[in-house]
Amino acid sequence: MKKRTLSIMLVVSLLCTGCGTTFNLSDVGNKSTKSIKEESMDLQNKSSNKEENISDNSNSSSDVSSIEVNENESSEAGSTNGNTDTDGIDRYEAFISNTEKVYFDEESDVLPYHLQRKFDNSEGYTLDEIIETSLNAYYDNDKSKGDPSIQKQYIDCGKDGVKELLVDIRYPGMENSEYEEFDDKYVDHWVIKEVDNQLVVKYFGTDSLRSYTCINEYGCVNILNIGAYLGVLPETFGYLDENANWVLYYRYYYYLDMSDFVREKGNLGLNLEYSSEEWKDMQVEEYLFDDEAGYTDSDKTGFTIYVKTDDNGVVEDDSIYGDSSEYKEFFDDAGINTCPRSEVEKRLEERREEIGLSEDVMG
């Protein structure tokens, strides 16, 4: 059986406010595909507990204004952890009470396309209006499953002592039978910051079927996907800095087979030719440092690793990265920047230093 070689050599402990649990992302390089599947299911099961603190309003009035707001117990509403300026907290509380509006940066593309079509970046929105506008975009929403419910929590993006507001909005009407099968929830995560006496939307993420956006108490973000689609498993790691601006750590892609890598790069216009027999039992992983990059064409955009596998797992053999290696020559000719598997930890450490991501923020 082939082994997954997810070479995240550091340990990243994330308290997932969206996932309701603490978990570690560590080096799992020599685990079997079966083990990865089992771990994915375990993570999904933990993630299913994330709604325990989100109020269930299935019996409430259909009027959005009747929705109860449940505060996460781990974050005191009035606590600022040393922040003497309480204006931001007051505004956050006013927003939760629908007496304050939140605004968008008019140049921002923080929202996904289906919501961008409904929201006007030049307008402000109360919490009720955010829910109503979102529901207008969610055409599959089944009202019979109950009203949206809300959970709020204060986080400290960049760990600078200044609080930001994280609002989780669950839409039970978006949860079809497949959600029920996996005990998943549909939840939108809104990170809001007080900027120049005004509330601004700084980040948006979603939990949906087999996909989870986890945000820890210091704004570290992990977007997890359970299961590979068309032979590709994507994950995203980053953080919200002291200004709550998104900073990409890396986008990770794990390709179950070389043919999956070749197909996906071909879709981006990078045509690669290879012999399936020569690349049998080879697997590929990408670490992209640029949100816009389609592949790793330089150290700036990231690196790609490739490994041999057999029934016992990864074959530790750095000779496949040597100048005389046919595998190395293949990637070099394609203009793809590669990295030996043994150097992944070093490269990721350098990346964290480059973007200012501290261990304190990672949690």
Automatic annotation (TrEMBL):
Residues 1-24 form the signal peptide. Keywords: Signal. Residues 77-86 have a biased composition (Polar residues). This is Lipoprotein. The keyword Signal applies. Residues 36-89 are annotated as: Disordered. Residues 55-69 have a biased composition (Low complexity).
